[in-house]
Give the backbone structure.
Amino acid sequence: MALMTIDDVRRILVQCAGEDDSVDLEGDIAHRSFEDLGYDSLALMESAAQIKQEFGVVVPDDEITEVKTPQELVDLVNGLAARAA
């Protein structure tokens, strides 16, 4: 199974919730809050469904709502994948 990357998070967010023209998703977004990037908990819930489909990792609702940055999401997904392996 492939590890999730920041680029995967960027792509999934845009795919699931669109892109706010006022927010720059280019460059280093790893430690910017989802709120600053223009994404709310609903966008993260939709992203969790896409993560399950693409990576085969089930991210529990209570855990997805706790992540604050793309890097935290990458770490969570990759950690869950490692435990499941």
